[in-house]
Task: inverse folding
């Protein structure tokens, strides 16, 4: 979905490095999410944000932090990367002004930690 | 624990055949959603069915929901090679702040 843009698309880095993944959206949605996808495990929620002043932990938040800089921007940080954080990371948005709405995903960031 | 589980985990069919995927879940939901993921890409929303709906159609897609059995099925009719992808069901839990819980996904291969 071109309306949800993730950068970078691919990143290789070393253990212990700080990494930031960025997500921006042009859909005007209020909610933004970060997921992690591992083979055979589906998507797991890391953090989500209802608006700029609201940040919530998801299922697997340990080792991650987020920042909602604006309604359109939501970044994910790995303060000190470790190899088991190697995964495909997705940002998603949704519009909760009306109920029963789907989420819209970016194309993901493939992160490899050596 | 996993809320949604797709079945089968993998399915290989010939072009023109129908493909049926099933999803089971554990707790009460507001809605159930199906997504498709092409290799290396993000998830694309296919169809959403609310808890008070039993069946929904969108083009070649037909989704059913049985809340008494806590299960859903996705039928793709007259499949095409372009339908080859991974498919995920996701449930929006009641009282769950409108978060989605995804299944592990299933791989559909449509052979030309």
Result:
């Amino acid at each position: 979905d071109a309306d949800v843009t993730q950068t970078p698309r691919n990143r290789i880095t070393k253990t212990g490095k700080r990494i930031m993944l960025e997500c921006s959206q042009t859909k005007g949605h209020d909610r933004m999410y970060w997921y992690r996808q591992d083979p055979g495990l589906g998507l797991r929620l890391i953090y989500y944000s209802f608006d700029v002043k609201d940040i919530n932990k998801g299922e697997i938040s340990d080792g991650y932090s987020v920042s909602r800089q604006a309604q359109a921007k939501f970044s994910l940080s790995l303060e000190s990367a470790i190899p088991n954080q190697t995964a495909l990371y997705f940002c998603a948005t949704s519009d909760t002004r009306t109920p029963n709405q789907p989420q819209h995903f970016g194309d993901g960031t493939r992160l490899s930690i050596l | 624990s996993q809320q949604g589980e797709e079945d089968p985990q993998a399915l290989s069919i010939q072009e023109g055949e129908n493909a049926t995927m099933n999803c089971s879940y554990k707790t009460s939901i507001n809605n159930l959603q199906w997504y498709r993921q092409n290799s290396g890409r993000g998830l694309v929303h296919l169809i959403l069915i609310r808890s008070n709906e039993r069946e929904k159609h969108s083009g070649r897609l037909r989704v059913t929901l049985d809340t008494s059995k806590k299960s859903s099925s996705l039928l793709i009719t007259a499949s095409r090679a372009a339908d080859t992808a991974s498919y995920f069901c996701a449930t929006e839990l009641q009282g769950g702040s409108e978060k989605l819980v995804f299944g592990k996904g299933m791989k559909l291969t449509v052979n030309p």
About this structure: Residues 92 and 105 of chain A are 4 Å apart (CA to CA).
